Amino acid sequence: MPAVVATGTVESATPSTPAEPPAPRRRWPWRTVLAAAGGLALYLAFPGHDLSVLAVLGPAALALAVRGERVRGGVWLGLVLGLVFLLPLLSWTGIYVGSFPWLVLAVVEALYFAVLGGALAVTSRLPGWPLWSAALWVGAEALRGRWPLGGFPWGRLGFSQADGPFTSLAAYGGVPLVSFAVALTGTLLAAGVVGLHRARRKRGGRRAAALTLVGALAVPLVGLLAELPLAGSSLTEGGPTRTVAVIQGNVPRAGLDFNAQRRAVLDNHAEQTRELAAAVARGDAAQPDLVIWPENSSDIDPYINADAARVITRAAVAIDAPILVGAVVQAPGDFVANTAIVWDPVTGPGDTYVKRHPVPLAEYVPARPFFRFFSPLVDRVTDFVHGTEVGVLDVGGARVGDVICFEVAYDGLVADVVDAGAGMIVVQTNNATFGYTDESAQQLAMSRLRAVEYGRTVVVAATSGISAVVAPDGSLVQRSELFTADTFVEEIAQRDSSTVAERLGAAPEWVLTALGVGAVLAAASPALARRRAVGR
Q: What is the pTM of this model?
């Protein structure tokens, strides 16, 4: 190669010596730190820390970190962000079962962020890359929420926005539109930073950067304007009302053996209901038309255990209203069913809903011999059946759309009950197995987004907290504390109106996903064509 001599002249290289390319600069260290900072910002945005404004910094940091990188660099940076984000966010999954299941889940979920990082790197040189990047965030969440085994949509950007300027967008495009707005704001911020950096060397760059930053401010402004038609949505507006009681009976202890004293859990909820009946008799509480008990409020099968059936019947008779009971009942074969039962004070058990999406490795074990190799704890899991019917039940004159526990995280399961005519949404849940962690608050945030998305009051009934009543605008009307008995009584309108999000269904998510995938194909096609040409 050419050599500079002391006199400043340059000796010519011999023709037979090929010029060597300059050694590539390794820029991963600062990019890795930036991606990690983005993951931390995302974690802090979620319930437990509730700094929802920080959510935009996650997409912003990853967009800056992967810009100009190759695919493998983007994969690494996405993985870093995913791990820093999900390891603490999902720590509640290992609170009583050990660190191995928690770490496996977090790593598997982080792989989706690795794929996202690679895709963002591919599209980072395209014109309009902030838009394609935001669409790819939605696409990655769509995949993560569906595959494998039905997916695990925990930690979607939209679920960090139960409070804030993006919340109302759920009424127009569901959780995917909220996620897109958060990601677009972040990627526009990143584009503004890139523009300011370029402006140091290029005239006119400051104006372009300023316009990009204005765009970043415009997205949350649109969200605030979208909130105006939703403001003031109260529990009693929009339809005939029913008086609903929510019972949180509490459990003897937190942990996996919370229901070792199954009769005590049932008795707690029955006793809390009888106390409400006494308050009604004194005139201190309104007579409810229906009562909601949580998931696992009766882990004794009341169909085959006459004593459990008597306890529930006495509670229903005392309150003079049907109770929606969360029970574990025996199913054909060696299976059980996570079931909601409408229990009438006169006629006893009636209509039921069986949980349609049991949690893999918690409520059933696919490929049990394979997973037993990693942990013998899988043999503590009795397989639950998958329900097949949509959870809309007539309870005390109300059309209740029931989803059980984690089902509230799945767009399609919640959409189904509203499409089937639910006038209100009920989330029956049991969070005792997660102790004093942020899991309950994270799940409550999902319920608040669902209330806005469908313009329905959402009632959350938990064995040990957090139970809540959420108004159609997403505001909290009532909420309990963890591991305390509590009771709410509220008059709730049974709505039949439909939001834009309900009418559009999954269309916004599919359109945005298609935009992201299309951008990847557009960016990758020239490189693939060049490789084919070289191969010839």
A: 0.92
